[in-house]
Known about the structure:
By secondary structure, the chain is of the alpha+beta class. It has helices at residues 4-22, 26-47, 95-111, 126-130, and strands spanning 52-53, 61-69, 73-79, 87-92, 115-119, 134-138. It has a six-stranded mixed sheet, covered by helices on one side. Helix 1 packs antiparallel against helix 2 (26-47).
Amino acid sequence: xxxxxxxxxxxxxxxxxxxxxxxxxxxxxxxxxxxxxxxxxxxxxxxxxxxxxxxxxxxxxxxxxxxxxxxxxxxxxxxxxxxxxxxxxxxxxxxxxxxxxxxxxxxxxxxxxxxxxxxxxxxxxxxxxxxxxxxxxxxxxxxxxxxxxxxx
Length: 152
């Protein structure tokens, strides 16, 4: 999740640079310059540390913290499944999701388990992810070890 963005920006920069250097027409160079400005603006926005909107992929992982900004958005700090650094995310406001988030947080606290976030099964379309449709749940406790009967 966090390592894909620098690689994507590096590949895009190399591609745009190659187009700008090898271009013969002024329109191609102008287009390459415009793309590089757009990419620079996107990189600047991501480097500010502001919450990223969930547009391309539903967040998955452990919810470290959350904040409900009632009319505007749901802000999350999510640690990815194989990561250690949390990412700041912004979901669009939804009464239903805010209620589900609070219920899941209470269940997680009662169980002593971490709060998880994941995609809703069966909803993988871009429109559902753009609306920030995810589910919150308390991680199931690990199973108890099998009982052993002492030899008599």
